[in-house]
């Protein structure tokens, strides 16, 4: 009986972890341009011509995000507190970077928790 109770408890922990959207422990990397989510979603604004506006929006609290080469907008958070990653991304607005971190997902929505930001290698 103790063994089946322990197995049931272990299964419960695993199901709870999956239900809470706990990330896989593997580190992932993604590369793209840092954009301000509002102007990108509303107007498709990106690139050097939009850098000042994006920087100002990021400083004002608009979530910064990563636009990958295939056009996917990736929502990001800080792994430190799962809150805004703006402080980490602010120096790289309108520039291409590589983010290191972990993916989280719930109900079809994905979030990349950033632990490290580096300028992307030039081609």
Short précis:
The protein has 123 residues and is an alpha+beta fold. The chain is built from four helices and five strands; from the N terminus they run H-E-H-H-E-E-H-E-E.
Uncertain stretches of 5 or more adjacent residues? 1-20
Task: Count the DSSP helices.
Answer: 4
Q: What's the rounded overall pLDDT mean?
A: 84
Provide the spatial order of strands within the biggest beta sheet: 1-2-3-5-4
How would you describe this structure to a colleague?
The structure is a single chain. The protein has 123 residues and is an alpha+beta fold. The protein has a single domain (22-119), classed as OB fold (Dihydrolipoamide Acetyltransferase, E2P) (Beta Barrel). The chain contains 4 helices and 5 strands. The chain has helices spanning 2-19, 37-43, 51-59, 86-89; strands at residues 28-36, 64-68, 73-78, 96-106, 109-119. It has a 5-stranded mixed barrel. The longest helix has 18 residues, at 2-19. It is globular and about 40 Å long. The N and C termini lie far apart (61 Å).
């Amino acid at each position: 009986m103790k063994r089946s109770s322990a197995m049931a408890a272990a299964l419960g922990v695993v199901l709870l972890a999956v239900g809470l959207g706990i990330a896989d422990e593997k580190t992932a990397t993604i590369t793209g341009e840092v954009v301000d989510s509002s102007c990108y979603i509303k107007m498709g604004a990106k690139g050097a011509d939009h850098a000042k506006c994006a920087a100002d929006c990021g400083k004002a609290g608009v979530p910064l995000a990563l636009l990958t080469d295939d056009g996917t907008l990736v929502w990001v958070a800080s792994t430190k507190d799962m809150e805004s990653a703006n402080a980490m991304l602010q120096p790289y607005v309108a520039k291409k970077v590589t983010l290191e971190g972990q993916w989280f997902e719930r109900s079809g929505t994905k979030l990349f928790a950033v632990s490290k930001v580096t300028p992307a290698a030039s081609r």
